[in-house]
Design goal:
This protein is of the alpha+beta class. The protein has eight helices and eleven strands. Helices cover 36% and strands 34% of the residues.
């Protein structure tokens, strides 16, 4: 992680006047010496409570959408002409992406103290595919490391009981800095009929890995780490129609807030990674399915 930081700063130093570089060099030494203390942050109970409130409110909205007859995908609930544009874009091979924000009864956005909630939705259309093919792929957790590289470094199915799965992912996220995470997830699928299915995935354990893949590798204390990913839920909807399958994913994640003075370093990671990760997941899912037919 420090090495990636040094590389980024090295590019900056080459563009600065020579009188400026001693100060930057001193900062690099200080950064390396105090690396653990700079990044460590505690996940507080009040933050967890706020995130859980956000998830509950969001899932209540989803339940209302799914109860509407003749409507299954979130993008089908959008007002016109936004709905028509969204459906047309995915049928034309584009990846639909939008940022969401769940509000409370008063209409205010639900926020988490000392943290950021990232809420995105995306959708793709896979022409020629059927629902069984899609489910076979997304439930093949032992091979997700082959489909979703470079983000999913390792994947493993730990246990399956019908439509309920327990899985392990080692995730690697890179944006100026590189962060490796050991994560466990509970995933439940809800088959509806031969052309509709949905799922809910909840990360039950997220541990940041220090010195990943080295003899000195270790997990940092959960809840006292860099705070790059504390919570992660994802909700998938699959609908077979129009001679293909629509795949829609809604993702909610929790990260640390951006500390004063380190926005240039941590800001791009915690703000852009959630969107880019979802975009990559949808694109890789479609690409893998297209190879199969």
């Amino acid at each position: 992680m420090v090495g990636a930081t040094h590389f980024a700063l090295g590019k900056i130093m080459r563009k600065l006047p020579s009188a400026t570089t001693p100060a930057i060099a001193f900062f690099l030494c200080w950064l390396g010496a105090t690396h653990a203390n700079i990044y460590a942050v505690d996940l507080e109970p009040k933050t967890i409570e706020a995130f859980n409130h956000y998830v509950d409110a969001t899932e209540a909205r989803m339940a209302k959408e799914l109860a509407q007859p003749g409507m299954f995908l979130h993008i089908e609930s959008l007002p016109e002409p936004q709905r028509a544009r969204a459906l047309a874009s995915v049928r034309n091979g584009e990846i639909y992406m939008d940022r969401l924000a769940t509000r409370d009864a008063s209409g205010s956005v639900i926020e988490a103290p000392d943290a950021l909630i990232h809420h995105w939705i995306g959708a793709v259309f896979v022409p020629g595919a059927n629902l069984k093919q899609v489910l076979d792929l997304v439930q093949d957790y032992n091979h997700h490391q082959d489909i979703y590289l470079p983000e999913v470094v390792r994947s493993k199915l730990i246990q399956r009981d019908g439509d309920t799965f327990k899985i392990f992912y080692r995730l690697r996220k890179k944006k100026v800095i590189t962060v490796t995470l050991n994560t466990n997830h509970d995933v439940q699928y809800f088959p509806i009929d031969s052309t509709h299915c949905r799922s809910r995935s909840v990360a039950t354990r997220i541990a940041e890995v220090e010195n990943a893949d080295l003899p000195t590798e270790r997990e940092k204390p959960i809840g006292h780490d860099g705070g790059y990913l504390w919570r992660m839920n994802s909700y998938w909807r699959f609908e077979q129609k129009d001679q293909g399958v629509y795949v829609e994913v809604e993702s909610i994640s929790l990260t640390r807030d951006i500390p004063t003075g380190l926005g240039w370093l941590i800001g791009p990671f915690v703000t852009s990674i959630p969107r880019e990760s979802l975009l990559m997941t949808l694109g890789d899912t479609r690409a893998a399915l297209e190879k199969k037919h």
